[in-house]
């Protein structure tokens, strides 16, 4: 089944770029100087933030639906990120290098299928989930911490 993965639109985060640490703290956001690689996954580019870069840790509502599964969690966005990842039928290395929880979500925002996968199994599981007509889209989460990674849609 053809699919599309797209990083988050940077526009909602751009007003945060360049704010002082105090201004960010007022918004419950923290700035992190990246000293380890690959420790900070940017949700816009879907790549690890390079050493020397800056990561903003913020709370993001990735499932804004009126269902019991409505959800928000902490994510990293690279300060200055402006170009979202986008590809069809290709899984970015960020999502294959880490254990991922894939959640198949229906039209009303309920989880209909879920699996823990890594490596080549990520793409195979996406394709398998989209064979189920109930699945409207898939959310990928980093399995260890549960943080939202990306949304996967039918192409």
Walkthrough of the structure:
The chain has 155 residues and is mainly beta. The protein has one domain (3-154). Helix content is 15%, strand content 38%. The protein has 4 helices and 11 strands, in the order βααββββββαββαββ. It has helices at 11-14, 21-26, 93-96, 121-129, and strands at 3-6, 30-33, 41-42, 47-48, 54-63, 71-78, 86-88, 100-105, 111-117, 137-142, 148-154. The strands form 3 sheets. The chain has a 6-stranded antiparallel sheet with strand order 7-1-11-10-8-9, covered by helices on one side. The chain has a 3-stranded antiparallel sheet with strand order 2-5-6. β5 (54-63) and β6 (71-78) form a beta hairpin. The radius of gyration is 16 Å and the shape is globular. The chain starts with a strand and ends with a strand. The relative contact order is 0.22. It holds the Pfam family DUF1203. This is DUF1203 domain-containing protein. It comes from Cognatishimia activa. InterPro entries: DUF1203.
């Amino acid at each position: 089944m053809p699919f599309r993965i797209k990083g988050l639109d940077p526009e909602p985060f751009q007003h945060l770029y360049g704010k002082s640490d105090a201004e960010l703290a007022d918004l419950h956001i923290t700035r992190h100087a990246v000293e380890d690689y690959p420790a900070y996954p940017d949700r816009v580019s879907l790549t690890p933030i390079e050493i020397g870069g800056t990561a903003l840790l913020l709370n993001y509502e990735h499932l804004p639906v009126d269902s019991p599964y409505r959800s928000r969690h902490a994510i990293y966005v690279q300060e200055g990120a402006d170009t979202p990842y986008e590809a069809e039928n290709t899984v970015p290395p960020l999502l294959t290098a880490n254990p991922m929880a894939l959640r198949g979500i229906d039209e009303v925002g309920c989880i209909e299928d879920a699996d823990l996968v890594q490596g080549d199994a990520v793409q195979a599981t996406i394709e398998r989930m989209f064979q189920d007509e109930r699945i409207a889209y898939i959310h990928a989460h980093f399995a260890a911490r549960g943080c939202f990674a990306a949304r996967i849609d039918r192409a």
